[in-house]
Amino acid sequence: MLEVTGVSRSFGGVYAVREVSLNVADGEVCGVIGPNGAGKSTLFNLITGHLTVDHGQISFLGRRVDRLPPHRRARLGMSIVFQAARVFHGMTVRENVMVGAHGRTDAGFVSAALRLPRHRHDEREIGEAADRALERVGLAEWADRPADRLPIGQQRALQLARALCARPRLLLLDEPASGLRGEERERLATLVEELRADGLTILLIEHDVAFVTRLVDRVVVLDLGQVIADGPPAEVRADPLVLAAYLGQAS
Ligand SMILES: Nc1ncnc2c1ncn2[C@@H]1O[C@H](COP(=O)(O)OP(=O)(O)OP(=O)(O)O)[C@@H](O)[C@H]1O
């Protein structure tokens, strides 16, 4: 589904990501981990289109996307959950989720402004999709409440619902566990496990190794911008290069 081939990106002559290749197959849950400064965020932004590659190729569903802007990649079926839990203030939980589907409808601004029948039809469909997504992440009973009143764990779930509302082929999660503790973290892990059981393809970038390794089929480890390991979590955790990279950080 996603093929990243020999991708590099540097800042001021220093490589943040260097000759990185990774593939995510349909239905796979893949994690990218690595110590601070390993290049995880840069790689994530190269995949989503928020940064452009210096070299290399990115293909999604068999199509080159590395020159496409983020919204075009989104239209092809990439949905992103960003690290910072952001919700739109002054809007309900349902309205926040509905925003996720608007990029996928054909109804343009004019039809929305004039409230043409087609627009009303789309709005109803979007509302229904939002309700399904809220049900999926366990927020159905919060639908009509102000989004900014939600605790942070549920704001993260709301962002997931927003991403799901766009009916993604590939869900991209940027450090989904950051800022969450204890029970909230557990709830999020369970939710990702459920999405995985639904057959959704997921790529998640995460600092927390324990969180990632329990959720993924495969994990790619970055260090100093390069892939140092790629395989099943149990194998990768025992890899001497990986241990050394994380130990290097701790010392
Ligand atoms: N916009 C930028 N300008 C200059 N240097 C950058 C920029 N973005 C990233 N870098 C550098 O690229 C390297 C990789 O950074 P990146 O943020 O991708 O790593 P990371 O693995 O996400 O780290 P962390 O876990 O700390 O967020 C770092 O040395 C960083 O300083």
Name the descriptors.
41% helix; BCA_ABC_TP_C; ABC_AA/LPS_Transport; 4-stranded antiparallel beta sheet; binds adenosine-5'-triphosphate; ABC transporter ATP-binding protein; Rossmann fold; transport; 10 helices; 251 residues; 6-stranded mixed beta sheet; 2 domains
Write the layout of secondary structure elements.
Layout: E1 2-11, E2 14-24, E3 29-33, H1 40-48, E4 55-60, E5 63-64, H2 70-76, E6 78-81, H3 93-102, H4 109-114, H5 117-136, H6 152-165, E7 170-174, H7 182-197, E8 201-205, H8 209-213, E9 218-223, E10 226-231, H9 233-237, H10 240-250
Parallel strand pairs: 3-8, 3-9, 6-7, 7-8
Antiparallel strand pairs: 1-2, 1-4, 4-5, 9-10
The structure holds adenosine-5'-triphosphate.
Put the structure in a nutshell.
One of its GO terms (molecular function) is ATP binding. With 251 residues, this protein is of the alpha/beta class.
